[in-house]
Amino acid sequence: MMRTIRYQEIAQTLRDQLRAEGPGHVLPSESDLSAQFDVSRVTVRRALEMLRDEGLVESRQGFGWYVATAPVQQSLSHLDTIEGQLSDRGVRPERQIVEFAFVDAPERVRARLGCDHVLRVKRLNLADGEPFAVVTVWCPAELGEHLSRRDVERQPFYELLGLELRGASQIIGAAAADEADAALLEIPVDSPVLRCERVTTTVAGQPVLMSEHIFPAHRTEFTVELPLAEPSIVPSGLRLVE
Amino acid sequence: MMRTIRYQEIAQTLRDQLRAEGPGHVLPSESDLSAQFDVSRVTVRRALEMLRDEGLVESRQGFGWYVATAPVQQSLSHLDTIEGQLSDRGVRPERQIVEFAFVDAPERVRARLGCDHVLRVKRLNLADGEPFAVVTVWCPAELGEHLSRRDVERQPFYELLGLELRGASQIIGAAAADEADAALLEIPVDSPVLRCERVTTTVAGQPVLMSEHIFPAHRTEFTVELPLAEPSIVPSGLRLVE
DNA sequence: CTCGCTCACTTGTATTATGCTTGTCTACAT
DNA sequence: ATGTAGACAAGCATAATACAAGTGAGCGAG
Known about the structure:
By secondary structure, chain A is of the alpha+beta class. Chain A has 2 domains: 6-67, Winged helix-like DNA-binding domain superfamily/Winged helix DNA-binding domain (Arc Repressor Mutant, subunit A, Orthogonal Bundle); 80-216, 3-Layer(aba) Sandwich (Chorismate lyase). The first copy, chain A, has 9 helices and 10 strands. Chain A has helices spanning 6-19, 30-37, 41-53, 80-88, 107-113, 141-144, 149-154, 157-161, 179-185, and strands spanning 57-60, 64-67, 93-104, 117-127, 130-140, 165-176, 192-202, 207-216, 220-226, 236-240. In chain A, the strands form 2 sheets. In chain A, strands 3-4-5-8-7-6 form a 6-stranded antiparallel beta sheet. Chain A has a two-stranded antiparallel ribbon with strand order 1-2. In chain A, helix 1 crosses helix 3 and helix 2 crosses helix 3 (41-53). The radius of gyration of chain A is 24 Å and the shape is elongated. The structure holds a DNA duplex.
């Protein structure tokens, strides 16, 4: 005599239904489900808690149950995630400060940061001794005046400023390596590179950092997951430049 | 099988409406909107605050809500948004089928789609008569056998298949233009291009489409918003390739 | 004409209340 | 061990209301 465990059945049924739904999809309430499956609320909960243990759904008290967000990939929020990722793979990350100077802001930096005098830090990132990124950071002179060359060598810029950041807006494009970058990255001049221009803003909405990241094409690429389900908070896009 | 959260619906409705509006466009007042949607002002505000978090709109006390000056980003959820975005700007999008053939799948396509025989469609996208993308789509032969050259010329691949898609995973990299692409895009050979490789999967999780998109670097770039606050749905990342 | 004021309208921010949902517990039946 | 029934606390979504504070247009005094 095989006895079926009801809440396991229910969990399986829900699993099947939810596989088709995208992250963020809100489930009917436990009460609704208990009526729908004709079981008690407790039993529904058992099933849902099973699914939660599997990471398929999440819940918030007073709100409801919803399909969990896709497994979090490396967020681009911090550059150092890249370095973290590297050390996870057993690769030894390294930073080399190439330049550290207070300079007049070039036009496109002034346009975004809105200040004339800036600190410019140029840095070479290496993985296992091989260069894989040239990063240039511009930062308003007032903010950077207490920073030393050794400071920026040790930890990422974001932490040094001690500001509460809201987020960043980034532009990803392709370009040909100029002479300076090519030399640093040990690639031929004019070979293709990924070029990312990032503007970081504080919670107050004021842009406080601008940075340019140059990656050699043959060693780096971005991965993007497109949920397609709900354009909830995924404002990414391709755009034409004039 | 869906519970709706009112303010999220409203946010989505507003998102759709605002996409067509330019920066500076002033929205109706919160009171007007609450009457229009037949909800309380609190609910309207929550929707608007969501949009503000996304950077889509801004507000000034005593004045009102208006579309933010930041360029309106498009979700990458659908490929055709690119063309939709173009026509929004008054640019005339155009498609030109360069190739339409059933072929043996090359290695990297077979590895992802898991089938030997595929339909390969190569297409040139133009904006106002100027080429801006070369798109190559591989699709399992069984799925594509009822398609004609004219079909793919008229509407995007996604709609033709009539499958329920879950999403896609995309890799963005830089490369040098090969001879064929350079000729189509009217750019010099070896000039830098953005290269996107996309694998589209159905709700069942089966990959059904693989596509390669080549964009000339000087005309195109990706924009990515990094919320930083919520690591919830920021499925972007940079990775090294061997 | 300009200056300063008023007034209608806007967003920002509380407070209070209701209904619904999850979280948790006890008691009980099979 | 598994399932049912009920009760209660805590949290969320929404509504209704009130008030403070900022904006801008108009109007009148000078």
